[in-house]
Amino acid sequence: MSRVSKPYEIVERALELSRADGCVVLADEHSSANLRWAGNALTTNGVTRGRTLTVVATVDGAEGTASGVVSRSAVTAGELEPLVRAAEAAARAAGPAEDAQPLVGGVPESAGFREAPAETSSAVFDAFAPALGEAFGRARAGGRELYGFASHELTSTYLGTSTGLRLRHDQPNGTLELNAKSPDRGRSAWAGRATRDFADVDPLAMDEELARRLEWARRRVELPAGRYETLLPPTAVADLLIYQQWSAAARDAVEGRTVFSRPGGGTRVGERLASLPLTLRSDPAEPGLESAPFVIAHASGDDASVFDNGLPVEPVDWIREGRLERLVTTRHTAALTGSPMAPGAGNLVLDGGGGRSLEEMVASTGRGLLLTCLWYIREVDPATLLLTGLTRDGVYLVEGGEVVAEVNNFRFNESPVDLLGRASEAGRTERTLPREWGDWFTRAAMPPLRVPDFHMSSVSQGV
To answer: What is the pLDDT averaged over residues 314-320?
Structure first.
């Protein structure tokens, strides 16, 4: 067996080598292609390939079942057996695993399990690159400079277990970030898109959007810290709600450690969080945001368990019509907390029932702020999920339904849970790229939100 052996053969061979009571093998085949540019010119491009192998060994004992997990990249034929033995040794050295459950049973083999992995290449940019070149020309003629990058990744995951599971999932993931600057670097604007294949992104339209924002910034007004009616674009809403979802483990809530803990014990499931009919949901089959239909867990935690690998991931409403409906559970934490099973999913969608675009919401604003995006988001208080962060690449003053100036950046202090409760309008849901969390979570669709009293806690000198 060489390094280029078929992934399913590596999975089968690792399972054959296992001497543990149970074994899970995950082979992740990665490929990526990227373009980078600065000052209206391409600077670099490249294509990469890689493989990561994860072995989970389980060992039964008098006190319970222990697990050992070892992951390595670029595993060769000679390194496969030592990797399996290392996982077994880790299991034997560990105490009983708190999250131990029977490994998920076998199902019919996934289509394509014995086929070669899917791969991306520079061809994914065949239509995008010429359009980007045209955008460079327009930007140059318009006196602005474009910076940014485009990245496309494709990961084929092969999952095999000693209980007979043989599953495969191919996950494409593309991101485009475009930043426009004035020649003196005094004005800056950003736009981003998430995509599966770059067939649905238009750099010319993005450049036009950025040109409009740079024009807005020709006039500047300084504003103090305070509470302002604020229009949050879908990218900012995504960044806030992704962090909220990362903080939505049922066990943490039952143990009184999160914003979803009920005072006096239990969770806030069933409680109304928003007056608007907001529904926050995940669905592996969501069009354009498709994600793995089964659990892929390389490590255990309060919101994931290696014992759950291969467990089906079903559509779930986390918040339904404004009420908290579900919290994230593994099989272990579901039994521990008495909550329904709800594994974390690879996408997140917020529906608010609104039909207006962000531009239409601006047109109906008497006086308020329009944000571009958020960044450097950090948690201040887990009990309330109070977050702090900065605005970036354009905060604009809206008066009489029109953008009249750019204003200074701010530091904000807000809880996404509180924001859902105070939001007075949700616009039309659209696919979006989270700016802060785009390296970890990109499959999101959100509406713009109007918040009547968004807390800008201090003025920031950021750009």
So the answer is: 98
